[in-house]
Known about the structure:
Blueprint: E1 4-26, E2 29-53, E3 56-70, H1 74-78, E4 91-93, E5 100-110, E6 114-123, E7 127-128, E8 145-146, E9 150-165, E10 168-179, E11 187-190, E12 202-205, E13 209-217
Antiparallel strand pairs: 1-2, 2-3, 3-4, 3-5, 5-6, 6-9, 7-8, 9-10, 10-13, 11-12
Amino acid sequence: xxxxxxxxGYSQRNTVRDFFLEPRREGDTGALLLSNTGRNRxxxxxxxxxxxxxxxxxxxxxxxxxxxxxxxxxNQFFGNTPNAIIRSNxxxxxxxxxxxxxxxxxxxxxxxxxxxxxxxxIHTGFPYSVVDEERDFIGERNRAGRFPRFSSVDLQATKxxxxxxGGKKYKAHVGCxxxxxxxxxxxxxLQNNTASARYGAFLNSVDRMVRGKFVxxx
Length: 218
């Protein structure tokens, strides 16, 4: 298969001296300890393939990964969307931990100068924690379960056209991009409070979206 290219690789990233917060209580007073002894670790094994058939290109990849670290990251409480409640720090799966991911994407040349670029993304759901009515964690953090498996098919379709501006001809591409073409339910939120009547409900999926696209080459 002279038109087939396979690659395999392993990478590991270790973060040390990361900042995290630790609440402390001494008698009737409390304090927040800012520590720079945090440690994060990300491991990844990836296999990718690229296959070309004349002017068509198909790519695919599989990633097996693990992301572990301190969960009271400083930015969670003093970033753009701060969390109001600070509990004891724990080490566990990071919020973006997804052990398995398959990604397929390609570019196909159709008649009439139309280019189709589909993308299929499927990966393990992210981990979550469970809390009680006092907002205290029940069990270990980010080990209560995972969101449903994420699955999305996106598609971009563009057509090459010629534009005449000021007596000069320019090449342009006009078309659209469709996100979540099949309108698969991919929730981004979870009601994880055991005191709620909707405990366990997954919410806030992104519906199918269509966006216009225009690219001018000069």
